[in-house]
Write a structure and sequence with these properties.
The protein has 396 residues and is an alpha/beta fold. The protein folds into 4 domains: 89 residues, GTPase HflX, N-terminal domain (Rossmann fold), CATH 3.40.50.11060; 63 residues; 164 residues, P-loop containing nucleotide triphosphate hydrolases (Rossmann fold); 57 residues, Alpha-Beta Plaits, CATH 3.30.70. Helix content is 45%, strand content 20%. It has a 6-stranded mixed sheet, with helices on both faces. It has a 4-stranded mixed sheet with strand order 2-1-3-4. A hairpin with a 2-residue loop joins β12 and β13. α4 runs antiparallel to α5 and α5 packs parallel to α8. The C terminus is likely disordered.
Length: 396
């Protein structure tokens, strides 16, 4: 599918003039589409006075160059990857996000630099033959140097994040990460549960930086909830690589909450797209809770709720708050499955330890003895290791 559009502002807002579908057994190596479609699009460009043609797939540098020559004039040809990178560039609100987007853009541009220097082809005769090629090589070297510098900065960010996670894991509060297709309502859910002031708008990729907040439940239990960048079908590999420092938050989670916009007509395809990206991140083995969001906007909410119960799925509306208590209970139950059973005697002078057990674990019974408090509870594995000496005292 491709779109012909007009740019109506400096922030890349477009008016779609026409959509054209193409059925291809194989892509044309020169122009991606056949010569007949090229002629059809060229006629439509003149008829609608279109400024940009967007292809819903990634084009090779040669295909981009040949299509722009075929369409003529000042018509810009943009592929799916370039469009997504443009959107990411607009959404980057922090230094870290800007670094990651810049890296992805440069790696995308590197093999396409020939398109930026086509004006030098006019100098290919006489004394200056080959000057265009030399300029391209100079430009590529500059770009490779910039890419190397960006990778070093991002690696520094990655190390900083790792240190932060190590400090966070010292406090045994389980981490739950929200994952899902872009615009599924993850940031709205985080705001509703934690009172965080995270940007939540009805647009693609509103959130590029992970945000982690503490969720306090009515029963006193708590967990950390982390919002992550939204996924999309055919997510460019350059973006997956560039955002790996950010996406590592997912791999360190105790539980993934897959938030789905169940009111979207392509919800099934979006679920598959998210599962594919999680597989690429080697996060498929992390326990997951499926959550269907925006139930209030669905055509038949009652039918969806019945289907959700059969499939062990939680239905919510992050916007209205419907189903959030059930969601928190489901998270707590899933976290319990990842905890271990302990019996420990907590000395009276370790009151903060007992308080932590009640906060992050699930206490079944407490008995007050002469030399401390006997606790029987489910606690996170890494916290259970801290209780090992006290468990030995309890068993002796």
């Amino acid at each position: 599918m491709l779109h012909m559009v007009n740019d109506i502002s400096k922030i890349a807002l477009f008016v779609v003039l026409r959509c054209i579908w193409c059925r291809l057994a194989t892509a044309n190596p020169r122009t991606y589409i056949g010569s007949g479609k090229v002629a059809e699009i060229k006629s439509a460009i003149h008829a609608f006075d279109a400024e940009t043609v967007i292809f819903d797939d990634e084009l090779s540098p040669g295909q981009l160059r040949n299509l722009e020559k075929a369409f003529g004039g000042d018509v810009r040809v943009c592929d799916r990857t370039a469009l997504i990178l443009d959107i990411f560039n607009q959404r980057a609100a922090t230094r870290e996000a800007a670094l990651q987007v810049s890296l992805a853009q440069m790696e995308y541009q590197l093999p396409r630099l020939t398109r930026m220097w086509t004006h030098l082809e006019r100098q290919a005769g006489g004394q200056v033959k080959g000057m265009g090629e030399k300029q391209i090589e100079v430009d590529k070297r500059i770009l490779r140097t910039q890419i190397g510098a960006l990778k070093k900065e991002i690696e520094s960010v990655r190390k900083h994040r790792k240190q932060y996670r190590n400090r966070r894991t010292a406090v045994p509060v389980p981490v739950v990460s929200l994952v899902g297709y872009t615009n599924a309502g993850k940031s709205t859910l985080l705001n509703r549960l934690t009172g965080a002031d995270v940007l939540a708008e009805d647009k693609l990729f509103a959130t590029l930086d992970p945000t982690t907040r503490r969720v306090q439940m009515k029963n006193g239990k708590e967990f950390l909830l982390s919002d992550t960048v939204g996924f999309i079908q055919k997510l460019p590999t350059t973006l997956v690589a560039a955002f790996r420092a950010t996406l590592e938050e997912i791999s360190e989670s105790s539980l993934l909450v897959h938030v789905v916009d169940i009111s979207h007509p392509l919800a099934e395809q979006q679920i598959e797209a998210v599962d594919k990206v999680l597989s690429e991140l080697d996060a498929s083995s992390i326990p997951m809770l499926m959550v269907w969001n925006k139930v209030d906007k669905a055509n038949d909410p009652e039918k969806i709720i019945m289907e959700a119960k059969r499939n062990d799925v939680v239905c919510i509306s992050a916007l209205t708050g419907e189903g959030l208590e059930e969601f928190c209970n489901a998270v707590q139950e899933r976290l319990k499955d990842m905890m271990v059973w302990v019996e420990a005697l907590i000395p009276f002078d370790k009151g903060e330890l007992l308080s932590t057990i009640h906060r992050v674990g699930m206490v079944e019974k407490t008995v007050y003895a002469e030399n401390g408090t006997l606790v029987r509870a489910y606690v996170p594995l890494r916290f259970a290791r801290l209780l090992t000496p006290m468990r030995q005292i309890c068993m002796s």
